[in-house]
Amino acid sequence: MVTPAYNNADLIEDCIRSVLDQGYPNLEYIIIDGGSTDETVSILQQYPHVRWVSEKDKNILEAYRKGLSMVRGVYVFQCCVSDGFIDPNWFRKCVEVLEKDEDVSLVWGFAQAMSEEGDLLNVCFQEFFADPPPQKQEFLAYWLATGFALPEGNYCVRSEVIKRWFPDERSEEWLQTCELLGFMYNFFIQGYSPYFIPAVANFGRQHHDQRSQRIKDVLVPSITQYFRNTKKYSAQVLNGEVRHFFRNGHGEVIGEIKPNEVGSLRRQIWRHRLLRSRLMRSDLYSIGKGLWRRIHQYLSG
């Protein structure tokens, strides 16, 4: 488990407890503190089973890379200091999947929003309750169609995969700025496969000092670049410019999209785009009501 932190004394203890409450044996918890000036360090000192360092970082990317370099385990979770885990058996569930299937490199589940006061709010991507996402290699078409980023707050990934493909200072600028999206992009274009467990795994807390809001002007262009590059990669695969290989959790090639399979992949992509569209996910009454409202606005204008 790797958690970057900086001046989050009001949040860090909830995060630590949610991790330790998993009760998972052989847990290695690493916290990279960026030289906090509040009570963060004094709180960390109360948890002897947590490995931590407190020193200035150039940016959050450096903090993540530092944490990953300290990892000795086979699997890695990363958890923002404001977040935590809901399912008390989430670690065990993820490890069981990874231990049984070497073709799976990452396991993920549902995330749930939490208010700053600690109240649980909506579960994210609720459509997957009724219509689960594709599994393993079949998820590629879904990713190419939507650019869907797996929830970093709960996924468990093989350490050899994240250590190799997590962005570093040599990566393109957008990969460094949106380091978690950068890893997601590398994960899929390199041919690794995810597995979805239908359980509410973690909470993501909304709070007034969220990094995503503080550096919004920098993040938005990088997020746009992520979707642009995903769309470009999709076109390259479909046009035969790039051969997409599938890899197991150890990086070994176990398959590829062959020329005679490109047509099927194209159909899958369009199917996902259609089925995940807002139109297809609305009931007829809501569609009709919205259409009538637009007609009324047009006539009134």
Folded structure, characterized:
The protein has helices spanning 12-20, 40-44, 60-70, 90-100, 127-130, 139-146, 159-165, 173-177, 179-189, 211-214, 216-238, 262-275, 284-300; strands spanning 2-5, 29-33, 50-54, 75-77, 84-85, 106-114, 120-123, 156-158, 194-205, 245-247, 253-256. The chain has 301 residues and is an alpha/beta fold. The protein has one domain (2-275): Alpha-Beta Complex (Spore Coat Polysaccharide Biosynthesis Protein SpsA, Chain A), CATH 3.90.550.10. Strands 4, 5, 6, 7, 8 and 9 form a six-stranded mixed sheet that branches. A three-stranded parallel sheet has the order 1-2-3. A two-stranded antiparallel sheet has the order 10-11. The longest helix has 23 residues, at 216-238. It is globular.
DSSP strand content: 15-25%
Oligomer: single chain
Specify the helix fraction band: 40-55%
Broad CATH class:
Alpha Beta
Overall pLDDT level? 90
Number of domains: 1
Structural class designation: alpha/beta
Give the overall shape: globular
Which runs of at least 5 residues are low in confidence (pLDDT < 50)? 279-289
CATH architecture: Alpha-Beta Complex
The CATH superfamily name is Spore Coat Polysaccharide Biosynthesis Protein SpsA, Chain A
If helices are DSSP runs of H or I spanning 4 or more residues, what is the number of helices? 13
Describe the largest sheet: 6 strands, mixed
CA-based gyration radius:
21 Å
First-residue to last-residue Cα separation = 56 Å
Can you tell me the CATH topology?
A: Spore Coat Polysaccharide Biosynthesis Protein SpsA, Chain A
- The tally of beta strands, per DSSP, is 11
Order of helices and strands: EHEHEHEEHEEHHEHHHEHHEEHH
